[in-house]
Structures are given as C-alpha cells and as structure tokens.
Design brief:
heterodimer, A: about 240 residues, mainly alpha, 2 domains, three-stranded antiparallel sheet, two-stranded antiparallel sheet, 8 helices, about 10% strand, elongated, B: about 180 residues, Methane Monooxygenase Hydroxylase, Chain G, domain 1, about 55% helix
C-alpha cells in the first residue's frame, strides 16, 4: 500500500549527491583529462592544484594518486569560530556561504554542486549545504591530509549536536499553519529532521482541524456575501499567530 | 478526514464516550446490561464514539436528538487543567490510547477554543521531549521510561519517525568507517 521508504532522501542518498561537490586536490601523478556527462575533467599535472568532484577525489586518494586539500572552513580554527557563533545565537543557525554575484548572460549559471564551496578557496567562515557529509567523508578517506584530524572530527560532532538541538527546539514555535526558519541548515540535517518536523506539523493540524474548517466555512460565507471579507481575513490570520 | 481502512481511525471511533438518552427507547436496555428491559429516558451509557455520534446527530421527527454526548473523561476539565499545569507528567496512554485523535473527533462535535489551545500546547511540549528521547540512545531505559510509557499512539509514531531518521544517519556514519 504505502511506499516502504519514508518521504525525503535517506542519508546515503544525500551523501551520494554530496559527492558531486568540487574539492581541491594536489595530484601526485600526471593524468589525462576525462570527458564525462557531468562535464570535462581537466588533465592533472602535479604539483598544480585542481578542482575535481569529490567522488573522483576520494577514488584518487584511495589509490594514493592525489592528496586532498581540505576546504578552509574545515579546520579547527574556523570550526571553533562557527561553533562559538552557534552557541551564542541560540535562535538562528550560522549563515550559509554567500552566493557569487549573478553571472553575466554569456556565462553558465552556477548551482550548488558546481559552486566552489568546498574547494581550497572557499569562504572560511561559513558552512556550506553539504558540510557534515563532506566533512565526515573527507575525515574518513583522507584523515592524513588534515592537520588535526581528531580535533576537527570532535568539532564536527559538537556542531552537529548543537544544531540538531536547535532544530528540535524549533518545534516549540511551530504552529498548525506556521513556518520555521531553516536558513543555513545542511542537507543531512534536513533529511534527519524531516520526519519529526512534518510529524509535529501533521499532529498540530489534526488537532486544529476543526478550527481550520470553521475558518474555511467563514471565508466561504464571506466570499458569498460579498467582497467585505478581505480585511477580516487578515485580522484572523494575525490572531492565529 | 482519515482513510477508510486506517486502523488508528477505527480504534479512535471505538473509544467510549458518555451519552445520555433523551428519550425512552423500547428494547434497547441490553446496552445497559438489562437484557429485556427498555432504555429509560435520562440514563447515562458509555457508547462507542461512532454509535454515539450517529445517534446524537440523527434527528428524529420532533427534532430532538436521541442522545446527547458529553465530553469523555479523558478530556474532562480536570485532565485539561493537569495538562495546562505540566504536559509532561500526564499519562496520556492511560487516559486514551488515541488521545489526540479522540480530541480531534470531539472537537468536531463540540466547539471549544480552549481545548484546541491546550491540546496544541501539550502536543508541542511533549514533542520536544520525544525528540530528545529519540536522539538519546539509552533514553528508553533511563529516567524517561515513565514518560515513554505514557505516550499516546500519535506520539509513538512521532518517536519512531525521529528515532529512525537519527538511526539512519548513525548507520551511514558507521558504514562510512567500515568501508
């Protein structure tokens, strides 16, 4: 009857999407360029840096053909600063990285996997969308490329805890018709919070269903009686919040 | 509102609500345990919600309905006051296994703004606690055991959802290490 998978993406699926992110590597071997559906990969010339998708970087790293340069936000200094920001601002998440200026008409527009949020010249003070997945994968595959891998791992865990606690405490402000600000929340966090948050909203809507029905009936009546209802409707909306 | 085959909806409808008969009904005494007698006017009987609702809403010829429904004891003012005082300590499962669904059905019949407010606040406050329990792997045996036993069916589903998604992420992380 029902689909066996829950709605949304599972963590492995989110991680799969994350593997499209560009990371910076220092190749150890000369490699020919490859033409792929997702775009060409330029020839690798050691010791010149190159930006390639994460899946290829992990593959080359496992074969010891390249070293990965961790993005600037993935070190103890930046993560500590972000963690401080998270604990100081109990209400909001740390802001996502700024988007580049609107590309001019003759360049290709950029979308998340192709934004250089995780390359060596990314902004050091903001967590990109795939921060947790990327961080975990890099720490697993290339921990020897980090200066203090254990501390970075500890900070990532700390950040995850702080942010999940915020996401959970967000239900206090939820309403049957209300919203919840999720600016800066990462991909895997959305996947983890989805089932719970939608469950809470569904439950609240069920409880307030009779009120909603009343409001609908009233709106219907006002619509039939003439145009005078619009101002009232706004007032009601304000009362609901 | 709910699907025809939804087990939870069926179980919600099977919960008993107190009803008062407004008319004397011949031969209906078996509802009271009186096998051959009549149902006297003014007698109070606990009827399943679906039956009580049908009898209360069906209009007879002289426009007075057969029974009137009273709010069930699970939603009495005493319980609502307890929920207002502290939503976390009330054992909802003991009151009604489908507490919120029952509340929603009752609210379809009665117009009570305050009850909506109390139930919403209760649900929110308890949801936050459920989330904490779901993310804390030893929560089921620790200090929250009493609270977890008192969850109603909706809240249990919520707990399962939150627990499963947290588990999914943890499994992915350990899988990453074993690769």
């Amino acid at each position: 009857m029902a689909l066996s998978l829950p709605p949304g993406l599972t963590p492995p699926e989110i991680a799969f999407l994350c593997e499209m992110e560009l990371v910076t590597i220092i190749p150890r071997q000369r490699l020919e360029g490859v033409e792929l559906l997702a775009g060409p990969i330029r020839p690798l010339h050691p010791p010149h840096r190159s930006n390639i998708p994460l899946w290829l970087a992990l593959l080359l790293k496992r074969q010891r053909r390249a070293n990965i340069l961790p993005p600037p936000w993935l070190n103890t200094h930046s993560l500590t600063a972000i963690l401080d920001h998270e604990t100081e601002h109990a209400e909001t998440f740390s802001p996502p990285p700024r988007l580049p200026p609107q590309p001019s008409s003759n360049t290709l527009p950029t979308s998340p996997p192709f934004l250089p949020h995780s390359t060596a010249d990314a902004a050091p003070d903001a967590l990109p969308y795939h921060w947790l997945e990327l961080g975990e994968m890099l720490l697993e595959a290339a921990s020897d490329d980090f200066e203090e891998a254990d501390n970075v791992r500890k900070l990532l865990r700390g950040l995850r805890e702080v942010r999940m606690a915020k996401l959970r405490s967000g239900v206090e402000v939820l309403d049957a018709g209300g919203g919840f600000k999720m600016n800066g929340v990462g991909g895997i966090e959305v996947g983890e919070g989805r089932a719970f948050i939608t469950g809470v909203i569904d439950g609240l809507r069920k409880i307030a269903a009779s009120r909603e029905q009343q409001r609908k009936d009233r709106d219907q009546e006002e619509l039939e009686n003439g145009y005078s209802g619009t101002a009232n409707y706004d007032d009601d909306e304000m009362d609901m919040q | 509102m709910s699907a025809y085959y939804d087990v939870d909806a069926i179980l919600t409808d099977a919960q008993k609500v107190p009803c008062t008969f407004e008319l004397t009904v011949p031969g209906l005494g078996f509802l009271e345990g009186n096998m051959s007698g009549d149902m006297k006017q003014g007698s109070k009987v606990e009827l399943p919600l679906w039956l009580g609702e049908m009898l209360a809403l069906s209009q007879s010829l002289d426009t007075s309905s057969l029974v009137t429904i009273d709010p069930p004891s699970a939603l009495s003012p005493r319980v609502l006051n307890a929920l207002k005082a502290d939503p976390r300590t009330v054992d909802l499962r003991a009151l009604a296994p489908h507490f919120y669904n029952l509340g929603a059905r009752i609210l379809e019949l009665f117009d009570e703004e305050e009850m909506i407010e109390v139930l919403s606040q209760t649900f929110k406050a308890r949801a936050a606690l459920i989330a904490d329990q779901a993310h804390n792997p030893r929560g089921a045996l620790g200090e929250g055991a009493d609270f977890m036993r008192g969850l109603d069916e909706n809240e249990r589903q919520l707990f399962r959802a939150a627990h499963d998604s947290a588990k999914g992420v943890r499994t992915w992380m350990t899988h990453l290490k074993n690769k």
